């Protein structure tokens, strides 16, 4: 549900991102069947790839496991759940490593990291205004 | 976060192609979003 909310938010600013000369790739856990359904349901306009074995998450130091489980029922997550449901998003079937937390990076040519946000809990996402500001600063 | 290590990884895309991640930001900035899952 939170992933779908975040994908929809990115979809809504995708034209602003491409207008700045950048693009978006979403890296998800789970399998290709879930990924295709996700893209179709949410009308995702950007590239989506599947990190089945978690190697990309590991390289990016994106955490999960028991740490994420402990953060699943905090007041901020419950509040974020209400926000996402109000916006029309619902929980679909979970894939592998569903306890992995999300993250957002902006990486420029030369492997230059312009921005990074490691989600603090399952309902947290990078503020898109910050992402757009990082792109403009490049 | 190690962008060099991440860039060497190749993943399957929904488009049916294999993508080496580093190529995606080789010539333009890329917003790289890790989703928890596709649920």
Brief summary:
The complex is a heterodimer of chains A (138) and B (39). Chain A has 138 residues and is α+β, with helices and mostly antiparallel strands.
What descriptive keywords fit this protein?
heterodimer, A: 138 residues, alpha+beta, Glutaredoxin, two-stranded parallel ribbon, two-stranded antiparallel sheet, 17% strand, B: 39 residues
Biggest pleated-sheet summary of chain B = 2 strands, antiparallel
Number of helices of chain B: 2
Strand content of chain B: 25-35%
Low-confidence stretches of chain A: none
Q: Tell me, briefly, the overall form of chain B.
A: globular
Query: What would the average pLDDT of chain B be, to the nearest integer?
Result: 92
Overall tally of structural domains of chain A: 1
The H/E string of chain A reads HEHEHHHEEH
The ordered string of helix (H) and strand (E) elements of chain B is HEEHE
Classify the fold: give the CATH topology of chain A: Glutaredoxin
Spatial shape of chain A: globular
In angstroms, what is the radius of gyration of chain B?
11 Å
Mean pLDDT of chain A: 82
Counting helices, strands and paired strands, the structural category of chain A is: alpha+beta
Most extensive interface between two protein chains, with residue counts: A-B, 69 and 33 residues
Identify the strand order in the major beta sheet of chain B: 1-2
Sheet having the most strands of chain A: 2 strands, parallel
Number of strands of chain A: 4
List low-pLDDT spans of chain B.
none
Fraction in beta strands of chain A: 15-25%
Number of helices of chain A: 6
């Amino acid at each position: 549900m939170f992933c779908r909310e975040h994908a929809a938010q990115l979809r809504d600013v995708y034209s602003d991102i491409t207008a700045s000369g950048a693009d978006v790739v979403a890296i998800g856990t789970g399998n290709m069947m879930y990924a295709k359904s996700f893209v179709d349901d949410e009308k995702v306009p950007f590239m989506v790839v599947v990190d089945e074995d978690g190697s990309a998450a590991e390289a990016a130091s994106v955490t999960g496991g028991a740490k994420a489980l402990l953060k699943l029922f905090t007041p901020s997550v419950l509040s974020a759940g209400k926000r996402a449901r109000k916006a029309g998003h619902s929980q679909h079937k979970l894939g592998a490593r569903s306890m992995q937390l999300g993250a957002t990076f902006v990486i420029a040519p030369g492997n230059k990291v312009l921005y990074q946000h490691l989600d603090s809990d399952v309902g947290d996402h990078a503020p898109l205004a910050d992402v757009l500001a990082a792109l403009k600063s490049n | 976060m190690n962008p060099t290590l991440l860039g060497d990884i190749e993943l399957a895309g929904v488009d049916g192609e294999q993508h080496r991640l580093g190529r995606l930001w080789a010539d333009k900035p890329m917003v790289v979003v890790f989703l928890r899952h596709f649920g």
